[in-house]
């Protein structure tokens, strides 16, 4: 089965089980100050998992584009990607373990035809100290399904050493079978949600079990041992807890959050031993073979890094919410991806100028008919990539020469690493990798110190956004979100109806708001917008939410820049009373209930964002 067919079959299957299929949310999260990228399908759904009503119902499914910067160093083990698609289905307080596990089994064994004998599963062992029981329910459901398939599924409690041949279902502790965005229970901040999970693994076969670089080569094998034999293909999380100051409390509703990587499902269904040979990558892998005259099978690592990073960069650059390479936040990550790919191009001896950007249309081709915006944007994306490529190619060779001069030392100082960054554009990991090849270490903290001194690392990045974390629905961000609606309405009154929202980003300190407008705003216009918004705040207007079909919402004149995200039924937030109608927008929320709570609105900056797009920053005092 081709990957596109697997994706479609999954969405169709869950639609038949009563799920509403949603489009993928943007890779760049909106209104979520805690993280730079969407890294799981559940991330945009956090408010709904916590109990807010979702306009599309209680059963949802989608294929979510995900990016995990934290996995950048995992790329190269044949199964990890920074960018991937996660097939997901959710029960928002509706069905639970029985349906989830049975449907998943049916999808894996009947729809995509995986052999039950090659499936292994894990469940949560339980932990008294956090008050969560051993998951005998999930264990029993799995055991019955295996039995029906004619297998005798022995259950084992994982402990080392283990004899794999005896087990099919394994109990593990919270280090393996607990999921939250921050990880194990003790890593979760107060307010975060999570729960025990149950993972499914696909046996790639004992003959190819030991990845050559694996530190597990000579150790006994079990599903979670990472030796390369077992591939995790899906994870059902039973999100039923919220972390509180004194432990865990049950959520208002028991949810299911399933996620399965499309690339890995394709790898299993296509019976391959690495994701880069699936049809989601192979045309690119082959193109790099042609460009370099080398063979993937002979030296996989550089190919995997190039192909992974290229695809991630193309998706991030083409995202409807848009980001360009820069030294800040998401822009900095995309720049690092491009540069690292170029460096590995050199390792493979690729000579051709602008070779990386020339591969952009191929990425579009792989995703034809599923993410067509990649194709529509291909020429712009290609140009941005080419400009980056040109810029870095000019300094890469000189930087490498400069690096080779560092040889007599054992440790590359923070200053030297920073010079390589500043003069030759070497991101830290390039320097670290080059150093490792020569057996040198790098003073990474020293580098970061220099970096901070030069204020290249943004405050948000320094605040830990790269790590991911809980969506912050704190009071201030909710207020700023409501202020964003008022801002759009006021801009349209002052500047004209051509003004549309082009993006927004909220931190606990300020609102950043991008909008279409051809010229700089005058000080008078800025003042008028502030006065309008503050007038609405003073009038203490109620904020009301109504659910309706997208067509009805459009008919009432609701603004809806990101409307397509919510499927058929949408939420419309109106701000106003019988006399004043300030704003009406399609939006997922959350919002405050009365504008009087907002304080004083002030625009602190107005500047150009890109051609035809202005950006303002505003605060509430
Ligand atoms: N949120 C879980 C994960 O990312 C399952 O969707 O693995």
Task: Name some characteristics of this structure.
EC 6.1.1.7, ATP-binding, 621 residues, ten-stranded mixed beta sheet, four-stranded antiparallel beta sheet, binds serine, alanine--tRNA ligase, BirA Bifunctional Protein, domain 2, alpha+beta, 3 domains, Threonyl-tRNA Synthetase, Chain A, domain 2, ATP binding
How would you characterize the overall build of this protein?
It comes from Candidatus Falkowbacteria bacterium CG23_combo_of_CG06-09_8_20_14_all_49_15. Belongs to the class-II aminoacyl-tRNA synthetase family. With 621 residues, the chain is of the alpha+beta class. It folds into three domains: 274 residues, BirA Bifunctional Protein, domain 2, CATH 3.30.930; 168 residues, no CATH class; 152 residues, Threonyl-tRNA Synthetase, Chain A, domain 2 (2-Layer Sandwich). The chain contains 18 helices and 19 strands. Strands 1, 2, 3, 4, 5, 6, 7, 8, 9 and 10 form a ten-stranded mixed β-sheet that branches. Helix 6 packs across helix 7, helix 7 crosses helix 11 and helix 16 packs across helix 17. It is globular and about 75 Å long. The termini are far apart. About 4% of the residues have low confidence. Bound molecules: serine.
Summarize the structure.
The protein is an alpha+beta fold. It has helices spanning 3-16, 46-49, 97-111, 136-148, 262-269, 282-292, 300-318, 329-347, 360-366, 372-376, 378-404, 414-424, 428-437, 444-453, 459-462, 475-495, 523-538, 550-555, and strands at 20-21, 59-67, 83-91, 119-124, 155-157, 169-172, 178-180, 193-203, 230-244, 247-261, 411-412, 441-442, 501-506, 511-516, 543-549, 569-576, 581-586, 601-610, 613-620. It folds into three domains: 3-276, 2-Layer Sandwich (BirA Bifunctional Protein, domain 2), CATH 3.30.930; 296-463, no CATH class; 469-620, 2-Layer Sandwich (Threonyl-tRNA Synthetase, Chain A, domain 2).
């Amino acid at each position: 089965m081709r990957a596109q067919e697997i994706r479609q079959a999954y969405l169709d299957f869950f639609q038949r089980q009563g799920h509403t299929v949603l489009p993928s949310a943007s890779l760049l999260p909106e209104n979520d100050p805690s993280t730079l990228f969407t890294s799981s399908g559940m991330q945009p759904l956090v408010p709904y998992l916590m109990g807010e009503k979702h306009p599309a119902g209680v059963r949802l499914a989608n294929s979510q584009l995900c990016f995990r910067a934290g996995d950048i160093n995992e790329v190269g083990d044949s199964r990890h990607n920074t960018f991937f698609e996660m097939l997901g289905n959710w029960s928002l307080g509706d069905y639970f373990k029985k349906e989830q596990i049975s449907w998943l089994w049916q999808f894996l064994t009947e729809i995509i035809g995986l052999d039950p004998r090659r499936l292994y599963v894990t469940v949560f062992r339980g932990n008294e100290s956090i008050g969560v029981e051993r998951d005998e329910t999930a264990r029993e459901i799995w055991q019955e399904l295996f039995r029906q398939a004619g297998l005798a599924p022995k259950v084992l409690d994982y402990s080392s050493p283990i004899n794999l041949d005896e087990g099919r279902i394994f109990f593990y502790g919270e280090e393996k079978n607990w999921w939250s965005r921050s990880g194990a229970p003790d890593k979760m901040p107060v307010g975060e949600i999570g729960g025990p999970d149950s993972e499914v693994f696909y046996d790639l076969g004992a003959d190819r079990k030991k990845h050559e670089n694996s530190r597990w080569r000579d150790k006994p094998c079990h599903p979670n041992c990472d030796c390369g034999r077992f591939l995790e293909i899906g994870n059902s999380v039973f999100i039923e807890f919220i972390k509180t100051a004194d432990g865990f409390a049950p959520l208002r509703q028991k949810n299911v959050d399933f996620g399965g990587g499309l690339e890995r499902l394709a790898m299993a269904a296509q019976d391959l031993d690495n994701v880069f040979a699936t049809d989601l990558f192979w045309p690119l892998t082959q193109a790099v073979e042609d460009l370099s005259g080398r063979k993937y099978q002979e030296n996989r690592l550089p190919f995997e890094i190039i192909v992974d990073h290229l695809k991630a960069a193309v998706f991030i650059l083409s995202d409807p919410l848009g980001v360009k390479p820069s030294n800040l936040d998401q822009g900095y990550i995309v720049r690092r991806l491009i540069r690292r790919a170029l460096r590995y191009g050199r390792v493979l001896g690729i000579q051709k100028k602008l070779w990386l950007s020339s591969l952009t249309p191929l990425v579009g081709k792989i995703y034809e008919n599923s993410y067509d915006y990649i194709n529509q944007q291909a020429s712009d994306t290609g140009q941005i990539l080419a400009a980056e490529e040109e810029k870095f190619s000019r300094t890469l060779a000189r930087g490498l020469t400069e690096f080779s001069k560092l040889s007599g030392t054992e440790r590359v100082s923070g200053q030297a690493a920073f010079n390589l960054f500043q003069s030759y554009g070497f991101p830290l990991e390039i320097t670290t990798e080059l150093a490792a090849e020569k057996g040198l270490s790098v003073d990474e903290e020293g580098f970061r110190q220099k970096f901070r001194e030069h204020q290249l690392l943004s405050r948000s990045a320094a605040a830990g956004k790269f790590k991911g974390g809980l969506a912050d629905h704190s009071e201030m961000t909710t207020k700023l979100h409501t202020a964003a609606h008022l801002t759009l309405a006021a801009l349209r009154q002052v500047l004209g109806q051509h003004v549309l929202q082009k993006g927004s980003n909220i931190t606990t300190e300020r609102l950043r708001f991008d909008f279409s407008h051809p010229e700089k705003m005058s000080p008078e216009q800025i003042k008028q917008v502030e006065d309008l918004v503050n007038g609405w705040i003073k009038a203490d207007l109620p904020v009301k939410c109504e659910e309706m079909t997208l067509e009805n919402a459009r008919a009432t004149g609701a603004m809806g820049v990101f409307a397509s995200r919510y499927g058929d039924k949408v939420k419309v937030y109106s701000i106003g009373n019988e006399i004043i109608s300030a704003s009406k927008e399609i939006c997922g929320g959350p919002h405050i209930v009365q504008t009087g709570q907002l304080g004083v609105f002030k625009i602190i900056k107005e500047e150009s964002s890109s051609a035809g797009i202005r950006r303002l920053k505003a605060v509430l005092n």
